[in-house]
Design brief:
- The complex is a heterodimer of chains A (522) and B (385).
- By secondary structure, chain A is mainly α.
- Chain A is 67% helix and 0% strand.
- Chain A has 17 helices and no strands.
- The two termini of chain A are 27 Å apart.
- Chain B has 3 domains: 33-118, Helix Hairpins (Orthogonal Bundle); 125-270, Immunoglobulin-like; 281-382, Cytochrome c-like domain (Cytochrome Bc1 Complex, Chain D, domain 2, Orthogonal Bundle), CATH 1.10.760.
- Chain B has helices spanning 2-18, 40-73, 89-117, 155-158, 254-280, 285-304, 321-324, 328-337, 351-363, 375-382; strands at 125-132, 135-140, 145-149, 180-183, 188-194, 199-203, 208-212, 218-222, 228-234, 247-252.
- In chain B, helix 8 (328-337) packs across helix 9 (351-363) and helix 8 packs across helix 10 (375-382).
- The chains are: A mainly alpha (522), B alpha+beta (385).
- At the A-B interface, helix 3, helix 9, helix 10, helix 11 and helix 12 of A face helix 2, helix 3, strand 7 and strand 9 of B.
């Protein structure tokens, strides 16, 4: 082996430039953040179990919702996808590693520092006036004029996360554009690679916008500017326009790679090729394009001109079309297949079904006149958790089960995997489905207390949330168990119907430098 | 639609039955669904909502049925040899075009409704709504009076940190000290703004939700058809007590409304007379302290706390430089004009109330400066002297 030398112990991880090591670090980091953010969610659900304030001061409750959102979005979902990209893209395109390995190392090691900055704000002796408490959307002037001192740590944390994401995205694009095996034309790329390339372009487009928004916050807070203060000629609504110009593509950044994952798992376990590959690619690209022109549908109550509201309503509704195409294609892939239900397939199926639910409530929310009723209620919370938990998180979990045997060379415990699945799917619905009802009935978001008429649904949500949270510990056990040997050796193909270079051309576990010689793709 | 509605309420009742006692008791409002409300537009919003719900149920139902069928019929044990097909342009076109048609069908009523909802012209009267952390100030622009409306649920009902459970009233967190009274059958225009952060004035029964944005004025309107008491909340996160700034509207017939307005105007004249009297007289320390304590508990305590020790971002007054070292004039100016997060109270409190609360803060909790300030001086400060 030409590159046989690598350091051991802590130095291996600090200095590694290997895509698999970095991928693993991303995934473990993501899981750690998932547990921290999840613990905060349980704190929220604990307080909301019954009317009255039993556990937290309202201000700390706001901190919990804020930090939960920030940690899940920037700490759990985004790094999980970058971790998967690191592990899979070189193997799927027949490359030895990522194109820019040192930048790869750097983009990971920024993250622990970024989140240390963010989490330091919770240390009371440092910040007596508390951690960020203005929601993960940090609307001005609540976050500027009224934000606690720790807001500045949040701002620098977000800057670092953005730099890390942009570097990760550049790496994916450069790798995919330059290092594909001979014969792998763009329209022969695996769907996961396609969805990630498109995601990477979204990241490069919008992370600088977010950086601009937090920089303007910083100067508003400390250097006398008035970007978001009407008293100085600025506009608080402009903050929302800038934020959602980042925020809406961000939503798709958190779902497109999961689309790619489903497009691998469903064909494998249906033993049938993906239906409508080309239309899947075009649909993904259309969704990405549309994500840039619909941002103000998050702001239908700010008092936009009616022409603007009409435009954003119609543009948003159009997104349902390419999204629908993707769902129909997955169903058509299963049609007349020969389906088996291993754990990855179960999670992928749940992904399709529950993402559809999140999609149809999305169409409802797109309609401006009714959105004015749904806006800022638990109906919205239900909607975006249906696309994020069964979407992004189930997608990631499905991917881990699907590729873990390839990564470790061992099979995970299938029976326990199924137990994990059934607990998760029951709990996720128990947690988030009742939120549709409490929202419609009139419960607003981001409140620590509510009238008794919402009690029943909140109790169900709280019970579901604890079940959901604790069943993820089973996932942790399953992964560790699999790494340590699991249920025996995996075959090179792993799954009967598996396609793609990583299954057809590489042994299990895959070698450290994936492809030392490029395979021929026909 | 009426058939749909009947089916829907049937489905809701079945689900109520299935889910047991939690929602069995049917109250004034549905605990499961949007309310039809009491205005023409709220009814139209409700109808459109139900229409979309049913279409979306149908779409999702078809997808789920196809998945369920595949999962049952095309499992490996039933269908050991998979088909080989992987694309069909005809199908792709069909499932691109059909969703488009559904969306176009939905867009038409949505556009019509939206245009009506946004038409604030030809209003019969105008009420200005001002969001202040964490209360609402209502100004009746035509009649010329205003008042502040805030949560009336006592702290003892919601602070349950001992976790013993507290007795709660029926309108827990949805009740206020001063209800907004509005006439039925009149087109009422609301002008919304805010003193500090963004709030959102949401009245579900009118299908009205509009952000109150500092430095800007938003417009919306309603025409209430049925007399009654309607409850809403602030919908946009506005800080610590965001969940504790409800809205209550009492809709009454015109005659009753006129009576209420007359009473409000009388109260206003009386309050102005008392304020002038209070401002003119010279107050004793004891009177200022007693009045100051009352004002403090009502307006200041929520942030600065009863102990004067503050909380988190809210600074302590006990032993603070402003309350003990700086001149009383500066202290009073801060109350009148506000600073940073601190609200300006110059218009909300009378001169006597400001004088009393400043005196109270300079002498309570062991601050003991022995200094007092008279209403006359506050009045001078307001005039810029």
């Amino acid at each position: 082996m030409a590159h046989g030398h690598h350091p051991t112990g802590i130095k291996r991880w600090l200095f590694t430039t290997n895509h698999k090591d970095i991928g693993s670090m991303y995934l473990w980091f993501s899981f750690t953040m998932f547990l921290i953010g999840g613990a905060m969610a349980l704190g929220i659900r604990l307080e909301l179990f019954q009317p009255g304030l039993q556990f937290w001061e309202p201000n700390f409750f706001n901190t919990l919702t804020t930090m939960h959102g920030l940690i899940m979005v920037f700490g759990a979902v985004m790094p999980a996808f970058v971790g998967l990209a690191n592990w899979l893209i070189p193997m799927q395109i027949g490359a030895p590693d990522m194109a820019l390995p040192r930048m790869n190392n750097f983009s990971f090691w920024i993250l622990p520092f970024a989140f240390t900055l963010l989490l330091l704000s919770l240390v009371t002796p440092l910040f007596p006036d508390g951690a960020p408490n203005f929601g993960w959307t940090f609307y001005a002037p609540l976050s500027t004029k009224f934000g606690p001192a720790s807001t500045d740590f949040f701002i620098f944390g977000v800057h670092l996360m953005g730099i890390s994401s942009i570097m990760g995205a550049i790496n994916v694009i450069v790798t995919v554009m330059n290092m594909r095996a001979p014969g792998m034309s763009l329209m022969k790329m695996p769907m996961f690679v396609w969805t990630w390339v498109i995601t990477a372009f979204l990241l490069i487009m919008v992370m600088p916008v977010l950086a601009g928004a937090v920089t303007m916050m910083l100067t508003d807070r400390h250097f006398g500017t008035s970007f978001f203060d009407a008293a100085g000629g600025g506009d608080p609504v402009m903050f929302q326009h800038i934020f959602w110009f980042f925020g809406h593509p961000e939503v798709y950044i958190m779902i497109l790679p999961a689309f790619g994952i489903a497009s691998h798992i469903i064909p494998t376990f249906s033993r049938k090729p993906l239906f409508g590959y080309a239309s899947m690619v075009y649909a993904t690209a259309s969704i990405a394009f549309l994500s840039f022109v619909v941002w103000a549908h998050h702001m239908f109550t700010v008092g936009m001109p009616v022409a603007g509201e009409l435009y954003f309503m119609i543009a948003t509704m159009i997104i349902a079309v390419p999204t629908g195409v993707k769902i129909f294609n997955w169903v058509a892939t299963m049609w007349q297949g020969s389906i088996t239900f291993e754990t990855p397939m179960l999670f992928a199926l749940a992904f399709v079904v529950l993402f559809t639910l999140g999609g149809v409530s999305g169409v409802m929310l797109a309609m401006t006149p009714v959105d004015k009723q749904y806006h800022d209620t638990y109906f919205v919370v239900a909607h975006f958790h249906y696309v994020l938990f069964p979407g992004a998180i189930f997608g990631t979990i499905a991917a881990v089960y699907y590729w873990l045997p390839k990564w470790t060379g061992n099979m995970y415990n299938e029976t326990l995997g199924k137990v994990h699945f059934w607990f998760s799917i029951i709990a996720v619905n128990l947690t988030f489905f009742p939120m549709h009802f409490s929202g419609l009935a009139g419960m607003q978001r981001r409140v620590p207390d509510y009238n008794m008429m919402f009690e029943g649904f909140n109790q169900l949500s709280s019970i579901g949330a604890f079940m959901l949270g604790f069943s993820q510990l089973l996932f942790l056990y399953l992964v560790i168990n699999c790494i340590r040997g699991g249920k025996g050796k995996a075959t090179d193909r792993v799954w009967e119907g598996a396609e793609g270079l990583e299954f057809t051309h590489l042994p299990s576990p895959a070698p450290y430098h994936s492809f030392e010689q490029a395979p021929e793709v026909k | 639609m009426s058939l749909l509605k009947r089916v829907m309420s049937g489905a809701l009742m079945v689900s109520c039955f299935l889910t047991g006692h939690l929602w069995a008791a049917e109250a004034e409002y549905s605990k499961l669904n949007l309310r039809p409300g009491v205005t023409e537009n709220s009814q139209r919003v409700f109808d459109l909502h139900m229409e979309v719900v049913w279409i979306m149920f149908a779409v999702a139902g078809l997808v789920f049925a196809a998945i369920l069928y595949s999962v049952i019929r095309f499992r490996k044990s039933k269908n050991p040899t998979p088909a080989k097909f992987s694309h069909s342009t005809t199908l792709e076109i069909i499932w691109t075009v059909i969703p488009m048609l559904i969306l176009i069908y939905l867009t038409k009523p949505a556009i019509e409704l939206l245009l009506d909802m946004e038409d604030t012209s030809k209003a019969d009267m105008t009420v200005k709504v001002n969001g202040i952390r964490w209360k609402w100030e209502y100004t009746y622009l035509d009649e010329g009076f205003s008042f502040v409306s805030e949560l009336s649920t006592p702290e003892s009902q919601y602070k349950d940190y001992a976790r013993t459970g507290t007795e709660k009233g029926e309108n827990y967190l949805l009740e206020v000290n001063n209800e907004v009274v509005l006439p039925v059958g009149k087109k009422i225009r609301f002008l919304l703004t805010s003193k500090d952060v963004i709030h959102s004035w949401w009245m579900p029964d009118f299908a009205v939700k509009m952000d109150a944005i500092p430095g800007f004025i938003n417009e919306t309107w309603t025409k209430i058809e049925k007399p009654g008491v309607y409850r809403g909340v602030c919908a946009e996160l506005c800080g610590e007590l965001h969940g504790f700034m409800p809205i209550v509207v009492r809709a009454v017939p015109q005659a009753e409304y006129d009576q209420w307005v007359a009473q409000k105007l009388e109260e206003k004249a009386e309050a102005e007379r008392l304020a002038a009297e209070a401002a003119a007289k010279s107050w004793s320390m004891d009177d200022l302290m007693a009045e100051g304590k009352r004002v403090y508990e009502q307006k200041c305590q929520v942030c600065h706390q009863a102990s004067g020790e503050g909380l988190g971002a809210f600074p302590a007054l006990k032993g603070s430089a402003v309350a003990t070292q700086g001149p009383a004039d500066d202290h009073a100016r801060l109350v009148i004009y506000g600073r940073g997060m601190m609200q300006a109270f110059g218009t909300e409190l009378t001169d006597a109330e400001i004088a009393a609360v400043v005196t109270y803060e300079r002498n309570a909790w062991g601050n003991d400066t022995g200094e007092m300030i008279q209403p006359g001086r506050v009045s001078e400060l307001k005039a810029g002297n």
